[in-house]
Structure to design on (69 residues):
């Protein structure tokens, strides 16, 4: 779906406080990721924020993967 509008994205698709409060944005090996903190220092990848299509094809950066840093 393509939405043509002059309205800011935040007004059309508002985020709830729980969505934005528990996400952390990190850069790992040049890949921008949105992660949420889990247990024992592990983080779960929620989104790949990068614009490079090759980063989406790498399985280690797939949403749901557990990472440590």
């Amino acid at each position: 779906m393509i939405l043509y509008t002059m309205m800011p994205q935040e007004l059309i698709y508002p985020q709830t406080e729980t969505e934005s409060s528990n996400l952390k944005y990190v850069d790992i090996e040049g890949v921008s990721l949105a992660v949420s903190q889990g247990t024992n220092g592990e983080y779960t990848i929620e989104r790949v924020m990068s614009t490079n299509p090759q980063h989406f094809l790498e399985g280690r950066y797939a949403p749901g993967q557990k990472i440590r840093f």
Remarks:
- The mean pLDDT is 87.
